[in-house]
Amino acid sequence: MANRKFHLRGFMRALRGHGAGQALVETALTVPMLIVVLIGAAELARVAYMAIEVSNAASAAVRYGAQNGTTAVDSAGMELAATQDAFNLPSTAPLHVTPTSACFCASAPSGSVTCTDVTACTGTGDTMEKTLTVTTSATFDPLIHLPFLPRTFTLHGQAIQRVLN
């Protein structure tokens, strides 16, 4: 009986020795996958951050332009406000700013009139209201290029605000 226990202990010891090699193989197989997942998460974070920057730049530009009628037509000022807000964008992704405005009469907001025609709103107490829309875009170039994805992505931001009189 004592001899049988001795053989059983040797057999168990041999089984434990093989387990250490299995753990090493499993680690060697999972570490590359873990690294790929972490790099993908970092790249996704870069895209999200740049998208937020582009959207915030549109918001800064429309806030500048909506101050009054003079700043509403100052495209250079709106572009400067947008680029100063998005200063963290990489130099390889220039920011494009496109301001547009639309005018309508306060009594009939569904109909659009030309912004230069100050006599278009003829109702009693009717005033012309101006809405400013700023659209921004930037091109994102990922660090890792996958064959089934485009090499660059265009990110867009938009902000709309009524111009103060």
In short:
With 165 residues, this protein is of the alpha+beta class. The chain is built from three helices and four strands.
Q: If you had to describe this structure to a student in words, what would you say it looks like?
A:
With 165 residues, the protein is of the alpha+beta class. The chain has one domain. Helix content is 48%, strand content 24%. A 4-stranded antiparallel sheet has the order 2-1-3-4. Strand 1 and strand 2 (108-113) form a beta hairpin. Helix 1 packs antiparallel against helix 3. The mean pLDDT is 83.
Q: Determine the structural class based on helices, strands and strand pairing.
A: alpha+beta
**What characterizes the major β-sheet?**
4 strands, antiparallel
Distance between the termini: 102 Å
State the strand order across the main sheet: 2-1-3-4
Give the percentage of residues in beta strands: 15-25%
The helix count comes to: 3
Oligomer classification:
single chain
Query: What is the alpha-carbon Rg in Å?
Result: 31 Å
Question: Unreliable stretches, pLDDT < 50, 5 or more residues?
Answer: none
